[in-house]
Amino acid sequence: MSADARHLLLSTIEAAAAVVQLAEARDWVQQMLSGIENPVVTPLPYHGVLLNGELHSVYATPEEAAAAAGPGMEIRTLWPRPKGGQQ
């Protein structure tokens, strides 16, 4: 992977992570405000754009991934791994 490709991948991962974390935090706050004592937020997926089977970039929404995908690229839903060894 070239340095430019690596930079693009890392920058899209960071941007997607920020959007996903904000959406999860908003869901948690909304649950608290609605009176739920122990909010549970299901981790949101990321949407990867792959080129020839290799991860090219990552987005927070399928619409962003579709807009960034070019000819011959595949969009795949990427679910986060459970935290703390949970399955």
Write the layout of secondary structure elements.
Layout: H1 3-33, E1 46-51, E2 54-59, H2 62-68, E3 73-78
Antiparallel strand pairs: 1-2, 1-3
Describe this structure in words.
- The chain is of the alpha+beta class and 87 residues long.
- Helix content is 44%, strand content 21%.
- Strands 2-1-3 form a 3-stranded antiparallel beta sheet.
- β1 (46-51) and β2 form a beta hairpin.
- The longest helix has 31 residues, at 3-33.
- The protein is elongated, with a radius of gyration of 15 Å.
Looking at this protein, list some descriptive labels.
87 residues, alpha+beta, 44% helix
Short summary of the structure?
By secondary structure, the protein is of the alpha+beta class.
Low-confidence stretches: none
DSSP E strands, number: 3
Mean pLDDT: 91
How much β-strand is present in the residues?
15-25%
Q: What is the H/E order? A: HEEHE
For the sheet with most strands, the description reads: 3 strands, antiparallel
- Number of H- or I-type helical stretches: 2
Structural class: alpha+beta
Helix percent band: 40-55%
End-to-end C-alpha gap? 31 Å
Radius of gyration: 15 Å
Shape: elongated
How are the strands of the biggest sheet laid out side by side?
A: 2-1-3
